[in-house]
What does this fold into?
Amino acid sequence: MHPAFSVLFFTTLSGTGFGLWFWLALRIALGDKPEWFDGLGWMLGLIAGAVLVAVGVIASLWHLGKPARVWRAFSQWRSSWMSREGVAAIACFVFAALLFAVMWLTGAGWPTRLAATALAIGCVVALYCTAMIYASLKPIPAWRHRLVVPGYLLFAALGGGLLFGPFAGTTLDAPDIVGAGIVIGAIALSLLKRAYWRAIDRDPLPLDTGDAVGLPGRTVSSFERPHTESNYLTREMGFVVARKHAKKLRIVSVVLFALIPALCALPVWLLPHGDLTALLWVGAASFQVGAFVERWLFFAEAKHLVMLYY
It folds into this structure.
């Protein structure tokens, strides 16, 4: 598949934004210490999450043929995961604005925790719907793998967790728990991606050329191409990346989205009383670059079954 940069920005930035919203909302919903509500970290965090999600969604419009008609997608929520993702994203913006207003006006209290709970649940739903846009596509076996949805959710959780620490600031009453969570999450994500890559390298395509031309179960060989010039399908669905380049990019992505963030979070875990916010910012920046490389590979290594015909 041809990696569209608009979709790459959408899936990486919006995923991190939803992850940041989730951890902030969860902390507010479960919070019982008044100092959490006195600082400006929660406010800046909600705004940062909104910016990341908004930029990601706006970037995704570049991939549409007629962006002015995007509003029509919301009407297909009964059958389309893309439509459901759009509805869930709008709902999250509403919940985030409601949480911002309630906290600003009333501070801690059950209305604040109710709004925070709604936002946390909405973020999980939006992330799941986005992941299912790809996991539901039968013509692309690599995206139908059982680890695609957990991987997408874990990427969002780790990216949001790396930003949660800096925005929580001094009100974070247990920085060692956050540091440990980031380290464990980075290790888990690297292992998950390793298992996913091994699976797509090992498992053959479920169909062959015979199925593509309507002769299932027969051995079919082609002596010439279906046509002499490239078309939309060969350009978009026929993009391939050399295996040697893919292996190098896999290593680069793991170093950036897992190893460096884990090393940056390790002192936060082991030295919780120092001001190590700068390290988490470095880890968050490295994660974003690594997630972008990983998402590029996610598209570039996916083989569309239509190419069996070509």
